[in-house]
Specification:
Length: 323
């Protein structure tokens, strides 16, 4: 039985060629990206397959298709190559004695709906990197000190994270503009009976709360379409696939043509918070951005209320009571 490739057997050029072929879809396109000849890229792929002991691509004339093993491997290769690129950048900054970029971790709704508005309010001298991920990964980036600023929905019950302020607004209903319900200024919860809902995939945060409200009102949807992206939710609504009970940051911060936003007759509060690592004090640019986020939220979100960080325990208790 062939031995599994050791770390010393893996060639960085082979991994780069593999990732480029997966991303670009062909050896020819990958060769252009890597500025290598097509035969050289093909040779690197073949050498990597020989090292791993299994095929990465299926050949059909001039076309190639990634195997299931290749798609699984690419997830880890892409992460590793991104990490190496970060090392190169940090090493270059140290050599040039430049300031490290301000890395901001935020959930997709915050990174697309609120953060750009806040960044536009201030003139940062620092370079900025935005890491858009789940609420759990956003919290992890703050706790480990990878990110200097985090923006995420509540709860934020994590040691190692300093909460600066909490935002409160209310959820809305998003639906296609030509939907009859869009003619109403306020949509009743009962109007959602037998309608298909577009929902977040994560069942443990906002989705759990509004599903409890629906059950309490005995409103049963016709079915759900799940997605891990708020942008996907809006795209599905625009295509007429259903309606969504949506958090307000995406609803008002990322308007989509063909999608109408209306108030619900039932208030479903939405809470989000701004955090920094407890392990180090925030630099002045982070403090400036924390204030700018508050200004942007007040301007963007109807009925926005900014709560002091000391209110965190009370808000968490309210969320637990709703459950």
């Amino acid at each position: 039985m062939q031995n599994i490739a050791s770390l010393n057997d893996l060639d960085l050029r082979q991994l780069q060629a593999f990732s480029a072929v997966i991303s670009s879809g062909s050896v020819t396109a990958a060769a252009k990206v890597l500025q290598r000849s097509q035969p050289a890229v093909s040779r690197l792929i073949q050498d990597l397959e020989n090292t791993l002991g299994y095929p990465l691509f299926l050949r059909n004339g001039p076309r190639i298709y990634p195997t299931e093993q290749a798609l699984r491997l690419h997830e880890y290769v892409a992460t590793a190559l991104t990490s190496l690129q970060q090392i190169r950048l940090r090493a270059n900054e140290i050599w040039k004695e430049e300031k490290t970029p301000l890395l901001i971790a935020a959930t997709p709704s915050m990174s697309s709906g609120l953060l750009p508005e806040a960044l536009a309010l201030i003139n940062l001298d620092d370079s900025v990197q935005i890491l858009s991920d789940s609420a759990e990964q956003t919290a992890h980036a703050i706790i480990t000190g990878k990110a200097e600023l985090g923006i995420s929905s509540l709860p934020l019950e994590h040691q190692g994270a300093q909460v600066h302020w909490i935002g409160q607004s209310r959820c809305v209903i998003a639906l296609r503009e030509d939907d009859p319900l869009a003619q109403k200024g306020q949509v009743l919860l009962s109007d959602l009976m037998s309608r298909k809902l577009i929902t977040p995939y994560n069942p443990y945060r906002l989705r759990r709360r509004y599903e409890q409200v629906l059950r309490k009102a005995r409103v049963k949807p016709a079915g759900v379409i799940e997605t891990n992206s708020s942008v996907n939710i809006l795209a599905c609504i625009r295509s007429g696939l259903g309606v969504a009970i949506l958090e307000p940051v995406t609803a008002y911060g990322l308007p989509v043509a063909g999608v109408a936003i209306r108030e619900l007759d039932v208030e479903i509060p939405y809470y989000f918070g701004v955090t920094t690592p407890q392990s180090k004090p925030p630099r002045p640019s982070v403090l400036a951005l924390i204030d700018a986020l508050k200004q942007a939220a007040a301007s963007l979100l109807p009925e926005f209320v900014c709560l002091d960080a000391g209110e965190h325990a009370r808000v968490i208790q309210l969320l637990h009571q709703e459950e």
